[in-house]
Amino acid sequence: MATTTRQKAAARRNIKRARTVQSRRAHGARIRKMSHGLSTRQQNRMPTQMFAFARKRKEPINDARHVRNAVARFDQVEGVTNAERDRAWRRIREAARRFGVKIEARGWRTLMKGGKTGRRTHRR
Fold it and tell me: Model-level pTM greater than 0.85?
């Protein structure tokens, strides 16, 4: 896929901003992170039980926002067995109850529409 001139210009702007912020932080400026997600350090310190896929430490489920994200990205997790998906779905449902998140899907198999797992069914 070829990149457009607009994409290249946006990438240059993003790199320039990142370098500016990094330089300012290095010189003592206190600049807040733009992301509201977990840092790598925070993820590494989380207990294994706080992840939907505990063995792979994928899909953190430590608050309502992460639970919704875990449901949305469930079909994108690669390299896990159906038994691991069953355990992950149980953890996600338990966390959803704990944080008051309503899940419409009956089970994880209804979420497997495609994604990276290659379970997509082509109908033509």
Answer: no
